[in-house]
What does this fold into?
Amino acid sequence: MKRRHAVALCGLSIARLDSAQSAESTESRDEKQRMDRILIIGAGISGLAAAQKLQSAGHNVVVLEGRDRIGGRIWTSTRWPELPLDLGASWIHGVKGNPLTGLADSIQAKRIATSYDSAIVYDVDGAPLDDEAEESLEELREQLFDRIEQAQDKDKDVSVLSVAEKLLADLDDDDPRTERYFNFVLSGNIEQEYAGSAEELSAHWYDSAKHYPGKDALFPSGFHVITQHLSQGLRIETGEEVQEIHWQETSIRVVTKKQEFTADRVLVTLPLGVLKAGNVRFVPALPEEKQTAIASLGMGVLNKCYLRFPKVFWPNDVDWLEYIAEEHGEWTEWVSFVRTTGQPVLLGFNAGTRGREIEALTDEQIVESAMETLRILYGDDIPEPTDFQITRWASDPFARGSYSFCSLGSTPQMRRELARPLDGKLFFAGEATSVDYYGTADGAYLSGLRAAEEINLSTRR
It folds into this structure.
C-alpha cells in the first residue's frame, strides 16, 4: 500500500531550487536545509525509521520499495485473518531496554512473552529425554561452548564446525548418541540462532552481538504493527525496483525498472543478500573496502513452516518442542502457538544449509517432511494439517536470505565499513550494518536512526 505525504511533491523527481531563487531567499540556514531531497531505498524497518526522523527534520523524503508491500523482512501474513503470522521477524528479543519495546509501548501494541525455558526435548526415537540423557546433553553443550570460547582466544580464526569436530574426536566416544547430541546443539543453539551453518560461522565472531536482557515477546497482531506505525505520513513508492545508483554526480540518480529519480542524498537499506547478489549496480563501483565487507559477511537463512491442525495433539503448556534428529538440523526446533494464541498451530524451523536445501522442494514435500518428524514424536494417528504457510527467504529476490551472520573470514570492523557513508551523499543502514545488534529487527531500527543522524549532520556542513 502506498502512503503519500500530505503535501504532494511535484513529479517523481523532487525539483531542486535554482540558484537565483536560493540567492533571493531570506530563509535561515536551518530553513534552507529543510529543502534537501532524500531518497531511501527500501521500506523495511531501518528505512522507515530513518524516513520518519528525516521528515521530522524537514527534509523532502521519498522511500522507494521494490516489493508491492512495506516491511521488508518484517512480513505479517493475514491469510488466516483470526491469526496473523509473522513470516519474517517475529520476536522482540530481550524486552528490557530494547528500543522496540519503547516503540511498542508508545503505540500500545499488545505483546505476549515467550520463554526458551518452556521446552521439551525429544530424542531420535520420539521419547522425551530422561534425567540422565538431559545431563549428558547439557554436559556436551557446556564442553562445546567451552571449546569455542578457547578458540576465541587464539589468533587464527576457525569455523564453529571445526571446533566441534575436534572436540568430538578428542572425546573418542563410541556412544551413538554423542554425535547426534553435538549436531543437536550445533543446530538448535547456534545455527537456528544465527542462521548460518556451523561450517560457515566464525568461531571468533559468530556470537559477537550484544543482547538485551529479559524475555522475548511476540505481537499477537503481528510485527507489522511496528512498520505500519512507522510508515504513517511517509511518501512510499512501491513496485520501484532499483537497478542503478549513480552516486558521484551532482544530483544522485537512482534508476529503477520503471523510471529515474534524483536526490541530494540517498540512503541504501538493501539487505546484505541483495548487495551480495549484485542486483543493484553502483556507478562508480563501491570502494574496495566496502565490497570486501559485502563479500565477506554471511547472509543466513532461517525458513519457517507453519502447520495448522484441527486439534492439539502435543503438550499445550510449553512454547518450544525440540527434536534430536537423525539427520543434522532436520526439524530440530518447533514453536507451539497454543499457549500464546489458543490456536492449534506449530511452527517448524530450518536453518543454514538445511534451510536453503528445502527451498528446492515443493510445499507438499516440505509439509510431508515435517509430518514425518511429528509422527515420530506423537504417533502415526495424528491428524493431517488443515493448512500451512511456508517461507523461502533465500529465493526471495528482495532479501536473498533472512539476516546476516559473522562468517569465517569476516570481522566486526567490516560491519562498520558497510555502514560508512560515502562523500556525504550515499549512506547505508540495515541490520547488517549494526556491529552490536546485527541479525535483529532492533538492530535494523537503530541503524536507520543512526543513518538519519549522519544525513542530518551532513546537511549542516
Remarks:
- The two ends are 36 Å apart (CA to CA).
- The chain has 15 helices and 22 strands.
